[in-house]
Structure formats: structure tokens, C-alpha cells
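Protocol step 4 of 5: obtain the predicted structure for the target chain.
Materials: sequence only (see below). No template structures provided, no constraints applied. The aim of this step is simply to have a reference model before the mutagenesis design in step 5. Sequence pasted as it appears in the construct record:
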Amino acid sequence: MGSQLNAEAPLETDVLVVGGGPVGMFAALRLSQLGQPCIIVEQNSHTTIHPKMEYSSHRTMEIYRRIGLLDQVRPKGVPENYGFTELFSTGIGGPNLNVAQIGRPSPTDLRKFWADSNNGSHPLEPHMRQSQIIFEAILKQIIQKEPLIQSYWGYAFQSLVEDDDSVLSTICDPSGNPISIKSRYIIGCDGAGSKVRSSANIQSPREPLNLAYVHFRSSDKAKIQVYGDFWHMTILTGAVIVAQDEVDTYTLHRMIPPGADYEIGDPVKFINETMGGIGGHSDIKVDEIIVTGKWQADMSIASSFRSEKGRVFLAGDAAHQLTPAGGHGMNSGIQDAYDLTWKLVAVLNGWGGDNLLDSYSKERRPVAELNTAMVHKGVAEVVIPWTTKGHELGFDKIIARTEEGQVARDVLRDAILPGHWMHEQDGTVMGYRYNGSPIVIADMSSPEPPTSITQYFPSTWPGARAPHVFLSDGKTSIFDVYGPDFSIVDFTAAGESSQRFATVAKGLGIPITAVHVPQERHCRAIWERDVVLVRPDGFVAWRCQPGGAGSSDEEIRSILLRATGKLSSNAV
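Step 4 output (C-alpha cells):
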């Protein structure tokens, strides 16, 4: 619920969330769903009006479904019958041409294909096109109704002092008056220029790329989408236009040369000059300029996602910044928060140990490194070939309606199409694994499954996301029968292992749900083992040995203590 702070009455809370963007609000919501009160502060008085993220990945949509957010978010996205087509053109003004097209199926088509195959290699939920403007507004409405969340809008974080037991933060109210908040933990979700990060002395070197944008409405769809419907259209002169809603809302981004002091000036002129491309100005009718601005697409990863004293955590852009290539930015942040929140709640409730909190940075930072590598690869294999090859061939030749012009366009197309993978990263999005995590019990009996950028290989290898499989009724996912915390999934006939896990867990105070599904032989074949321990975030903590489901009570105890961070990796 929205509130006002009294400067004369310092607040105390277990968890302070700094930053009311999508990651911060998601973290606060997830904490409240897990029964944990928290405070969230945001320096702005309202959610964003700027067109930032417009893509939620398969994995992110699975998470939304898992926490009950899907039905509030999906209906306000681009309708599922629209695909994710990318166009590469010379512009839409004068004698311009569409050079290449990468078509992708719609979520509607994906659902049917995935249900028919049901081989574990696909996500439960397809990705979604939705502006961050819409998503943040939805989240704010939700968190302000949550009784366990105190939200303060227009309150700016200034600094923190961390000791072994708590963190004392200084916040300024809308009038600039300093207020103190004492918390046991802080989650810094305050963006690329994070004051939480700098206050905690966590380093994050940055590599900025500057862009200008205009977010606008136009009913001139026939001119803007002259080459057909698109999600993104990249223009050879260094711009990208995003179709935000398949109705009349668009965002046009243009790269600014390094060091240039660029101002948009007349936004309508900016639109028509940029959209015109090589062939000259376009004549798009602009109905409304919603907002204009400049932004930096940074490339950076914080040196750690947890402070040295252990009470300050970073998530989202405060922890890692990526250019939009591949769509990893906000999605990574949501997954950060999903990983961190259950661990914080476990520790605050007494059944999680410090290794659980230490695992956050050890699990999520390598994922940020992987995503950064994918962005660098995308720039090297898609963005640079598109622009450099265009200049090498010559703009006049590329738009010439001649045989020589067609040859030039074919060469340019051949340079672009191999980069189709950049927005087809199922392997990157769903296949990352928390290898080396202190709370994952490694499987020494079998080799690690293969990895791929575009293909997800289903496996219950410890540290991997457990595969989604529809059960024998054809409509219930194995995900849907998980409990709210740990789940011990048991495919054996007797179900003795899951019951023993439940009994030992009860004695340790660890919340666990026994999922006994002996009849699900198809799912068992994909899951590879008879007994699998799944964490609250859907990742595998442990699995039994091939052909053997039996574990002694002492072994089960060690497994559970390791998975909850109360036992070191040397103990199992």
C-alpha cells in the first residue's frame, strides 16, 4: 500500500527494496507472497513513461504463471496471434527496399506445436510482447494492494551504512527531508546508476552506447509497415523501430555517434528523417508524440551481487546492464529477484543458512556473464555485419533497381540471416545451469548434458531448470503440481523416498511437498531419474543415482541441509 514516512519516526524492516521499477516491484511482490513484509522506496512519484523493455522471455512468462501474475499481465500484451518478425530495410522513404526478413511463429502457433511434441524441450509459456510502461503500471497497482508491502513513491535513496547485523539507509522524502530506515537486508534494484551499489562499494565498470528515441502514435500503419507486420525493423542508417502494440504505438531509436552532443529538436522531423533511411525523408503522419529522450545502452556486470558484509544485494540493472540485443535485460532482473527472494525468506524464517544467500551471486553472476557474451556475439554477428557490409557495398548500389543492386542486396541479406539466432535463444534463456553453486548437489554419475544457444536440452542435471512436461491428462504441467517451497518429485511405485524426504524435512523445519506421480512414465523418461529434489525457483537441487532411489535418513538430512545452505559443499 502507498504510504508517507514520518521523519521523526525511523522505520525498521527485515527487507528494504530500493527501486520501484519492474525488478524492485517484482521482488517486493514475491516477498509478500512468501509471507515476508517489506518496504519499497522509489525516487519517482510514478512508474515509467519511457519505452524501455518490450519483451518478456519464455522463462519470465513461466515465472509469472508460477506466482499467479500471468493472467494479469498476458491480456495487456500484444495479442498472441502476432509473431516476432524482424525486418531489415534501407528505410521507407523514396526508393527504399526491404532487404531481409526473419519470421518467427506467434505464441498461438508455438502453444500448439509445443503441446503436440511434449518432449520437455519447450517452455510452458511462450514469450510476450509488452511495453515496460504497461508492465510497471500493472505491478504498481498490485503491490499497492498488498498489506505486507509498504511502498513509498517520491522517496529517494541516498546512502547506507552496513554493519554485521543490519543496514541503516538514508532516504529523502519528496520535500528533501532525510529519513532513516533500518533493515536486516537491502535489495538494490535502482538501475544502472545504482546508489545502493556505489554505497556498498561494489564496482561496476561501464561501456556506454548512446541512443536517441521518440515514442509516438501514428495511424499511418500502411506507410510504417509498408513491408508487412513487424516486431522490430532495423534501418541500414543506424536505427530501429519497434511496433509496441500492433495498433498505433511505436518507438524509434537512433544511434548517436560517440561524443556527439545530439538533441532531437523537432521529433516529427526526427521520425521522418530517420525512417526515410537511404532514400530520403518519409512522410509519416504523426498523431501524438508521447515522449522523447536519450539513453545509454550500457554493458557492465557488478563485481559481486552481494556486499562484503553480506546484507546488501543487487538485482536487475543495478547488478548488470546489457544492450537490448537478445532481450536479456529486464528478464535477467526478474530472474535475479525470483532467485533471491525465496532465499532471503528462508533465512529470515530460520530454515535457510548463509550459504543460501552466498549462492545468489554465485548463481546469478555467471548468468549475467553468459548473457553479456550473447550480446557481444549478437553485435559482432548481426549489428556490425549489417552496418559495415552496407557501407562497403554502397548505399546507392543497394537501393538501385538493377541487377548489380540485386546482387548487392543478396550479399547484404546473406550477411544478416545467420544472425536469426539473436532472438531465438531458447538454450540461453532456459538452459543456463547453476554449476558450482554451494547449494546444488552435483551428479557425479553422468556427464553434463550439452548446451546450445538456440536449443534447450531438457535435463534434471542438478543446477538446471527442471523440464516442463504435460502430464498424462494433456493439460496439467509437472510445474503445476509443485508445492510452494521445495518439492520432492517421486516417480517410484511405492513413493517411499518422497515420504522419507518429507519426514526428514519436517524434523528440520524445511517446507517441502511430496509429489508422488508413479503413473507419469512419459515425464519420468524425460526427467531421467526416479527421485528429484526441486527448489522453490524450479531448479534442481539434487537427483538420485540411476536405477537407485533409496537414500538413508542421514543422507537425506545432508542433502536437505546442503540445499538450504546450512551445510557446506564438503559435507555431501
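Step 4 remarks: DSSP finds 16 helices and 22 strands in the chain. The chain has a mean pLDDT of 92.
Proceed to step 5.
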